[in-house]
Amino acid sequence: MQCYRVAPDKEASRWMITKGNQDLEELFIYKDEAIALAIMLAKANSPSKIEICDEAHAVVDKRKY
Fold it and tell me: Whose C-alpha in 20, 30, 42, 59 is 20 to 30 A from the C-alpha of 48?
């Protein structure tokens, strides 16, 4: 099962999606934009899961697709 993680970058100024240990190339200004793309990726590569983190990198939500 693939895992996509939505978390802030090191400066906490943008949101990024990681797949395993790989950062995807796009950065997002808004968390909701990153979550929407992570959902699309997870659904396209089912079975997958998404972990959504807060600004402190703590997982606040998990979803499976």
Answer: 30
